[in-house]
Specification:
Elements (H helix, E strand, L loop, with lengths): L3 E6 L4 H11 L13 E7 L11 E4 L17 E4 L8 H22 L3 E5 L10 E4 L11 H15 L3 E4 L2 E3 L6 H11 L3 E2 L5 E2 L1 E3 H13 L12 E4 L6 E2 H10 L9 E2 L1 H11 L5 H8 L2 E3 L2 H7 L11 H16 L2
Parallel strand pairs: 1-2, 1-4, 2-3, 4-5, 5-7, 6-15, 7-12, 8-11, 9-14
Antiparallel strand pairs: 10-13
Length: 329
C-alpha cells in the first residue's frame, strides 16, 4: 500500500519538533487514521533529531524560495510549522510571507490534499481580549513577527489551509514565554494586577496532538470542517496569570510572590527597571488575552487534555535551566 506522505516544515523548532515526535507515534498502520503507512518528509536546513530511518529529509531554506522547488512532490499533507520571530521586519517577511507563499505554490504544484498552517493569536495585537472568537476582532499586529505571520496567513488560506492561532505555547523547548515571565518578575516582583488576568495557553505536546489529528484525519481534503479557515488553537480553558506564576514557583522555576500591585504601578516599575521588555510584551502575559478555542478540538475529535497547566511538572527541569541561562542564574 502506498504510504501517506506528510511534509513538515519547522521540524527542528519548538512546535515542529513536538509535531515530529507526535507523528512518530502514528507510524503503525492503524494509528495512521486510514490504515496507511506514514512517511514524514522534513524540510529544513538540517535533518531534525528524532527523524526515523523511514523518514525523508529535504535540505531547503524557507528564506530562499527557490530551494523549496519540489519539496511537496508526491505528498498528501503539508504541515507548515516554520516561522521566524525577530525584530527585523525583512527577516520575518522573507520566511513568514515570501517563504510561505512559495511553499503554498509547491503544495498546489505537488497536488497536496490538505494543509495545516501554524500562525499565532498575537496577530490580534493589544488587548484586552476576553473570550474573543475568530473574526470578532480585527487583527492589529504590532510586532514584525506578528505582522508578517498575519500576511503569511493569506497565502495559506488561498491554498485552502486550516490556519491555527494558538496563544501562549508552553512546555519543554519554550524559550520565550516562561523566560519572559522571569524577566518581568525580576523587574516587578508581585502579582501583576493581583494575578487576575486570563490568557489563552496550550501545552506544546497537546498542540502537537491536535496538528497530527488534523493531518491524519480520514478524508480527501483534511480540512477541519471541509472549509479550511482560521481556528483558535489554545486549551479551551484560559489560565489565570496568578495560577500560572504559582504553578511555576511550586517547581522552583520562578520565585514565589505574594504582593499585589495595580496595573499602572506595574507599568511604572517596568519602565523604571529598563529591561528589554516592552509594555506590549508585558501586557501579553499579564493581562486578559484569551480566545474561545473549544471548537477546533471538537471538530478534530481530539481531547485538549485536563488542564493547560498539567505540563508544568514535566517541563520544570528544562525551564529551570532555560531561565537560569536567560537571567544569568
Amino acid at each position: 500500500m502506498r504510504p501517506l506522505r506528510v511534509v513538515l516544515t519547522g521540524a527542528t523548532g519548538f512546535i515542529g519538533s513536538a509535531v515530529l515526535r507526535e507523528l512518530a507515534g502514528h507510524r503503525t498502520g492503524e494509528d495512521a487514521g486510514s490504515g496507511e503507512r506514514l512517511v514524514v518528509r522534513a524540510v529544513g536546513r538540517r535533518r531534525p533529531e528524532g527523524a526515523g530511518p523511514a523518514d525523508e529529509w529535504v535540505r531547503a531554506d524557507m528564506a530562499q524560495p527557490r530551494t523549496l522547488r519540489g519539496v511537496c512532490e508526491g505528498a498528501d499533507v503539508l504541515l507548515h510549522m516554520a516561522a521566524v520571530i525577530s525584530p527585523d521586519e525583512s527577516e520575518c517577511a522573507a520566511v513568514n510571507v515570501d517563504g510561505t507563499a512559495a511553499l503554498m505554490r509547491e503544495a498546489a504544484r505537488g497536488g497536496v490534499r490538505r494543509v495545516v498552517h501554524l500562525s499565532t493569536a498575537a496577530v490580534y495585537g493589544p488587548g484586552p481580549h476576553r473570550g474573543t472568537g475568530v473574526n470578532e476582532v480585527v487583527p492589529a499586529p504590532v510586532s514584525p513577527a506578528s505582522r508578517t505571520r498575519l500576511a503569511g496567513e493569506t497565502h495559506a488560506l488561498a491554498a485552502g489551509a486550516t490556519v491555527l492561532r494558538p496563544g501562549l505555547v508552553l512546555g519543554r523547548g519554550d524559550r520565550w514565554v516562561v523566560p519572559l515571565l522571569a524577566q518581568c518578575l525580576r523587574a516587578v516582583p508581585a502579582l501583576w494586577d493581583g494575578g487576575r488576568g486570563r490568557v489563552s495557553a496550550v501545552a506544546v505536546d497537546d498542540l502537537a496532538r491536535l496538528v497530527a489529528r488534523l493531518a491524519l484525519a480520514p478524508g480527501a481534503d483534511g480540512r477541519a470542517d471541509g472549509r479550511g479557515g482560521i481556528w483558535h488553537a489554545s486549551h479551551p480553558r484560559p489560565v489565570r496569570v496568578g495560577d500560572l506564576l504559582r504553578a511555576l514557583a511550586r517547581y522552583d522555576v520562578l520565585p514565589a510572590v505574594t504582593a499585589e500591585l495595580p496595573w499602572q504601578e506595574c507599568l511604572e516599575r517596568l519602565r523604571a527597571a529598563r529591561i528589554p521588555v516592552s509594555e506590549r510584551q508585558f501586557a501579553l502575559v499579564a493581562t486578559d488575552h484569551w480566545y474561545r478555542s473549544d471548537e477546533i478540538w471538537r471538530v478534530a475529535g481530539c481531547s485538549p487534555g485536563p488542564s493547560p497547566l498539567a505540563w508544568v511538572e514535566d517541563a520544570a527541569p528544562w525551564y529551570r535551566s532555560a531561565v537560569a541561562a536567560r537571567t544569568g542564574g
